Amino acid sequence: MNIKRPIKYIIFFILISLSLNLSSQTISDSKLKAAYIFNFAKYIKWNNSDKYDKFRIGLITENKNLINELKVISQVKKLKDKKISVTVFNNISDIKSIDLLYISNAYSMDIKRIRKIIKTDVLLISDDCSNKREVMIDFSPVVKKKIQFKVNKPNIINSNMEISPNLLLLGGTEIDVAKLYQESQDSLKLQKNLLVKQQKEIDLQRAELDQQLKVAIKQKEEINKQKGELDSQTTQIAYHQKKIVNQKNEHNKLVNKRIELQKTFSLKIKQQESNLAEQNNEMKSRRAVLEEQTKSINDQNKKIDQQKNILNKQSSQLETQKDIIYVFIGFSIMILILIFFIYRSFRIKKIANKRLAEKNERINQQAEELLVQTETLQSTYDILSIEKKTVEVQNKNIKGSIRYALTIQQAVLPAIVDLKKEIDSFVIYRPKDIVSGDYYWMSKVATENTEKGINEKLFVIVADCTGHGVPGGFMSLIGTRLLSETVNEKKIYTPTKILDRIDYGVKKALNQDKSENDDGMDMCLCLIEKQDNNTTKITYAGAKRPLIYYKSVDNEIKIIKGSIKSVGGKNYDDIEYNQHELYLDKNDILYLTSDGFIDQNNPKGRKYGSTKLYKFLQTIGKESIEKQKTLLENELDKHQQTVNQRDDIAFMGIKL
Q: What does the alpha-carbon distance between residue 101 and residue 59 come to, in Å, rounded to a whole number?
């Protein structure tokens, strides 16, 4: 037998071990572990290694130095005469297509699960794993920069691989499987004794449960009796609810009829006021003509008086010149001429007086007609005043009904105090009229998770319905009812499926398949779930409303656009809602809004706008959530000034 060859191998391994131990004083742990991992593969034989096109090494670790060292080795060396590829897996579920897998100590608790995933033909190298029964090659803790390892030979053989005995010469020891088995047996005996004690306790508890079961049976009989009474009461309540709905429909018809009457009376009043103004203008013009004619007659009377004075003077001169014939003849001729002119002027005056009398008669007749029309208008005005008072009373009753509708809407909306208890938040809620077409909604549900136990889900929604006032208020009631039914009763928790369900419910409630109704609502929906690593998972789906969020680390506002499809209506039926997931850190902020804030006009007719809102939110992002609410309200008032509110406003902020 030739013993020189084994001696050479032994001397070679001793030299390698000494060189590695000496170099470990100056080389980092990462470099040493990388070299060991590379050398481990040399002493393992894979049954189907001839079929490999390359040797594949997988890593599950956060040690970047170790990763870099193995990548450097893969570029300059080969294993089994094949090139080496190094793959880093971020999650256990990503493991696939490898020949050797290294896992760091952080993943040692999952070694059993990893063994099931990799199955056979994969060499598993772990780092200080507590479960020695599952390991193949396991690094021991580094002591004085000296690396040691333990080998579980049966596990390697059971995975269809052969191990060289020379592997242990690198500084390893073989795990005593028998000792592990004995420890497992001792542990099983201890657990068995515990189970016996637990069984005795269970027997005692079972006796108590039997006693409690008898009590429960009696209580169940009483509950069934009460349930029968409750069913009869439920039937009566359903009858009364149906009666209330009928009364409500009749009330709506009466309100619509009163609104139409009010519009008709308003048109009549405006028309009669216009006619009265036209008649007053006509009377003023006729009075002006009459004054001009009266002035003309006065001027003619003055001229006649002047002519009379002249005739009187001439008559006195004729009396003194009687004796002079020629003069008398001439004077006679003058008198005849004057008589002619006097007669002519008298004739003209008589005709003018006749015409003036006719005009006066026509003016008096018109004045009488105007008086009659004025009396008619006065009586009409009195009737309209009575009708106006009636309409005012009706308006007062209608406003009272609308205020009662506001009470109902406020009862349906979640209390802001309750929302603050669940999460640090604010709500700005400003209806344009008494009731609002914008609304906000919140619901907290708890679900079971096999890995984490109870998982709490918080749903928050801001919606903008078609229209405002009473129609918008009715739409908001439909929306909140459908949300409660979908999330709380049917337990649908996926945001896109919730939007699909609300879309179907609105179309069905308004009978939009058969009617001309095209009303709907825009919606911003967020599912908030706290995570173990101090982050929050946000699942968002939007119907024509975006999600605005603030990153506190970057001091930056970001926007995720919603789908172009509303909830309800008849547009974009072939388009599906989009869903987005993001993970936010502590102090990041979510903003959910309707379009009322950005569409509000200032005195110059300019809207506030989205761009201006994003910039303002970025400037106040570091402030507390309560101060942000105050600053936003002041900013809106400063922009709006004396201009009437254009639309309903709903604005929610949530600090994570």
A: 6
